[in-house]
Specification:
Elements (H helix, E strand, L loop, with lengths): L3 E6 L2 E2 L4 E2 L4 E9 L2 E10 L8 E6 L5 E2 L5 E5 L8 E2 L4 E6 L2 E2 L6 E2 L4 E11 L5 E6 L2 E7 L8 E11 L4 E8 L9 E7 L2
Antiparallel strand pairs: 1-4, 2-3, 4-5, 5-6, 6-7, 8-10, 8-18, 9-17, 11-12, 12-17, 13-16, 13-18, 14-15, 14-17
Length: about 190
């Protein structure tokens, strides 16, 4: 008896490596000690070695782990900013998202439900920040009556996005603080 089981397509094991049977993609499901692994590989040539990428792991305890789950987090660092799109130019963490060269647009790779968050320290009364989807305002937050100190604004919402939709964060009124320690913008696939 063994506690390892596999089910695969277009692959064989030669004793050292997984290899393609024919030119094309390959996938493999492995069950080992109660853990389930689902992996895939891009198209390869017959007889070539396969490099699998794990798309999903379910632990023996039932925890689902998606190592390729798209997410982006970044902050703005610079001068205090008035009206305009906010760039993400500091504290960048990016997994499988497209972040444009101007640093102010995050494009999602697949359709799904995404959690979008924006936390910002406002430097003026009536500062309003917004989350934009494909250039259109979606939601935002506004400060009220700052007297002698700064005030934080936060927006967080789940939204269904299509593949290639893009997310931007903007200031529509007032001024935001330019210190990267005082703001965070994120986009994460949650389902």
């Amino acid at each position: 008896l063994t506690d390892l089981g596999q089910l695969s397509t277009n692959q064989y094991y030669d004793g050292s490596n997984h290899k393609y049977i024919a030119t094309g993609n390959s996938s493999i499901y492995t069950q080992n000690d109660g853990t389930h692994l689902f992996a895939g590989a891009a198209s390869g040539s017959a007889g070539g070695n396969i490099t699998y990428v794990t798309g999903l792991t379910i632990s023996a305890a039932g925890y689902a782990i998606t190592p390729q789950n798209p997410m982006f987090r970044g902050s703005y660092n610079g001068d205090n900013l008035g009206a305009g799109v906010i760039s993400q130019n500091a504290n960048i963490q990016n997994r499988n998202m497209t972040h444009n060269s101007a640093g102010n647009r995050i494009t999602v790779p697949v359709a799904g439900v995404y959690l979008i968050t924006h936390h910002q320290l406002a430097a003026a009364n009536g500062t309003q920040t917004k989350i934009k989807i494909n250039g259109s305002d979606l939601a935002g937050s506004r400060t009220q009556n700052i007297s002698g100190s700064n005030e934080s604004v936060t927006t967080a919402l789940p939204i269904i996005l299509a593949a290639s939709d893009y997310v931007e964060f903007s200031v529509s009124a007032g001024t935001i603080h330019g210190n990267a320690n005082y703001n965070t913008m994120s986009v994460t696939l949650i389902g």
